[in-house]
Every structure is written in structure tokens, then in C-alpha cells.
Amino acid sequence: MPYQGDAVLGDWSAIERSLLQVRANGTPTGYALPISTNGLYVAHLGVVRAGELRGVTFDGKPVRLSVRHTDLISNLILLVVAEGAPVPGIVFEGPEVDRSSGRNWMLTPAGPVNAEVLERPVYGIGGPGRRTIPLREVRFEGSRQTMSKALVMQGRTIVGSVVSSLEPVATATPSIGSALIPNYGPSRVQVIQMTAPSLTRRVLSAFRQGEAMQYPLVGMVCRNSAQGQVEVVSVEPRSPAQTAGIRPGDELLRLGSNPIRNVLDYGRVAIELIPGSEVTVTLRRRGTILTLPLTVAGTHR
Q1: For labelling, which of 94, 227, 284, 296 has a CA lying 20 to 30 Å from the CA of 6?
Q2: How far apart are CA 221 and CA 235, in angstroms?
Q3: Strand 167-168 to 104-108 pairing
Q4: Which of helix, strand or coil describes residue 120?
Q5: Domains of the chain
Q6: Alpha-carbon distance 254 to 257, whole Å?
Q7: Residues 180-239: pLDDT tens digits?
């Protein structure tokens, strides 16, 4: 059993009664948490394997599970109890703006582990659409292999999902990947990344409706030019960018009210856009400043 501090154990006896132990072909692989009272559960993608999928309640009752939606960006998966869904004592919420209450911990396939979420934002690139993804770093004690399939909690709130296959992008601190912190806590502590609460909130909000997360789609690829500008390299056919009139070679200056100084700026602003909303794109074309309205589309990638 992983290291468990008093802050985790104080809630664990109540929490575990509402969980399902996930089993693939009879082998326990981890836990799923109820996010509604009508049989919707969320789990880390890493605990779901191919084959017959079942859950077992705290009192040993088996239930059949099916996969409703898989989100490859957040590593979250929506599971549905096919029939005879248990009524959970606790329904786990997504992160709210005020996260001041509750201690951080991680729900791993082996049980709960104490953790600390660092508030400094970092970013990674991943998912089928090669997106810039907002992350947070998590400090913990234990095996990184076990933690790679963990949900990150604050009290009884899901605040993130561990992601371990992203490519780091440059930030003020050189290292984003797993690292050892030699002088923190009672022993050497590792660092891993989780999805930022802002992204987790949106995925769980869609899951509670039984739907997949709609990610924003703009439809243009940009790069940092040798002149220090952000240049549009390509525009996807029939995309919002093409409909707005954006062309390859344009210099991107602003997206909404946000100045775009480099490709990282573009990626982290674009991921926060809401599908269906309208945003103003400010660009320079052959020395002329243009302001174009763009309606953001949605995609599951």
C-alpha cells in the first residue's frame, strides 16, 4: 500500500464506499469515481484495459461497465454502469474557482497517496491534435509508474488527471518532466504533471451530461518567424480560420484581447476558447492591420 498521511486517511473510509474497483478480465486495475447519481463514473484512462470490463462495489457487488467516452487529451474516461447502478454516498465534483478547502491527494490504482499540487502553470503538447495543454506539477512520494494512472484530488473534488506522455514546452523553469527534489519532505519526492483544473472542469462538465468534451477548433497552424513574429503557416480548408479570411503568411497579433507574442501564447489562449463563441483576430497582412471576426468550432481531438 502506498504512503498514506492522516489527511488522506481521514476521508478515505467514507470515500472508498462510493468507489467502484475496476476489473479487466477479472484483474483489479484501479478505481472509478461516481460523478452523478445515475451510473456515470470517471476513471483514469490507464486503469481501463481491453477485454471484459466490470466494477465491484465496496460491499462486493459486481456490476457491468461500458465505455461511453474517452478523452485522450486529459486521460479521463467516462464509464457507465449498464444496469443496477449503485447509489453512491458521495458524488465527486469537478474543480471550482475557489479550491481553498481540502488537502491534495492522489487516487492511484493501489489506493490513496498524499500529494501537493503546485500552482505555477506549465504547459505540454499532446493529444491527437498536437495541442498546447495547461498543466500543473504534482509532488508525491512513491513509484512514478503507479502515479502515472492517478487522479489528483483536493478533498472530495477531482482537480486533475496525471498525464505522462506529453512533450514539455519551455517555461521559466527548465525541467517539466519527472524530477527528484532532494530536500523536500521526509524523503526524496518526485514530480509529475496533471491536467490543469480549468481543463479538468470542462471535461467533467461534459461527462456529467453523458457527452464528450468539445475542444476549440480555429483551424490554422502558426510558427515563430525569424523576424520575431507569429506567422500563419497553413489554414485548414473549410475551417473557422479560412471562413474568417485568414491566409498563410499573415502575422498574428492578437486573439481576442490577448496579445500573441509567440506560438506558446497562441496555443495557451486557443485552448481556452469556447466552441460556438466569436473571437476577434487581429493580424498584419503586408503592413496593413486587419481585424477579423472568427467563430470557434468544436472537435473531440
Answers
A1: 94
A2: 7
A3: unpaired
A4: strand
A5: 6-81 (2.40.10.10), 104-208 (no CATH), 215-299 (2.30.42.10)
A6: 7
A7: 333 334 445 688 899 999 999 999 999 999 999 999 999 999 999 888 889 999 999 999
Pairing of strands 230-235, 220-224: antiparallel
Give 116-157 pLDDT, tens digit per residue: 999 888 888 877 777 889 999 998 877 666 788 999 998 888
Q: Given its phi and psi angles, is residue 213 left (phi above 0), alpha (psi -120 to 50 degrees) or beta?
A: beta
For 259, the enclosing helix (H) or strand (E) is strand 258-259
The count of residues in the chain is 301
d(C-alpha 267, C-alpha 62), whole Å:
43
Buried b / exposed e along 44-66 (16+ C-beta atoms within 10 A): bbbbbeeeebbbebeeeeebebe
Contact present, 197 and 99 (Cβ < 8 Å): yes
The gap between the terminal CA atoms of the chain, to the nearest Å, is 36
Name the residue among 243, 217, 240, 242 with its Cα closest to residue 128. Answer: 217
pTM over cut 0.85: no
